[in-house]
Amino acid sequence: MKIPIDFTKTNGLIPAITQDYKTGDVFMLGYMNEEAMQKTIKTGWVCFWSRSRKKLWMKGEESGNKLKVKNIYLDCDKDSLLIKVELIGKNVCHTGNRSCFYTKLEEII
Question: Which of 21, 91, 100, 108 could form a disulfide bond with 28, CB atoms 3.0-4.6 angstroms apart?
């Protein structure tokens, strides 16, 4: 399936925000290359490209906290995604928090 995203515009990676499909809570921001996008669509589970490990990974492959795709939205510039998901597990963040966005900036400055 040809995806209408110009991956060359963003050096091969696009930002992908995951959000709880029921509550609207934002879970995390990851990056996808075309392979991660194709695998996400094919399997129904969110996959990312790890910039640090330089490899494809499925969210939850080690922790068991997986993200089941409900809907995928492409932004108006066709260079970022919003993925509505169902969390299968307890948390998304590797720190043990439900979301990666748990620290208010005012708490650290």
Answer: 100
Estimate to the nearest angstrom the gap between the alpha carbon of 33 and the chain centroid.
11
Q: What is the number of H-type helices and E-type strands within the chain?
A: 1, 6
Question: Which single residue is written with the structure tokens 């992908």?
Answer: 16
Dihedral (CA of 49, 55, 56, 59) sign? negative
Per-residue pLDDT of the chain (109 residues; tens, 9 = 90+): 667 887 888 889 999 999 999 999 999 999 999 999 999 999 999 999 999 999 999 999 889 999 999 999 999 988 999 999 999 999 999 999 999 999 998 878 7
Q: Which of 10, 1, 86 is nearest to 41 (CA)?
A: 1
- Tell me the CA distances in angstroms from 34 to 14, 16, 49, 93, 99, one per residue in order: 9, 12, 9, 24, 25
Give the start-end residues of each E strand in the chain: 14-20, 26-32, 47-50, 55-58, 66-74, 81-88
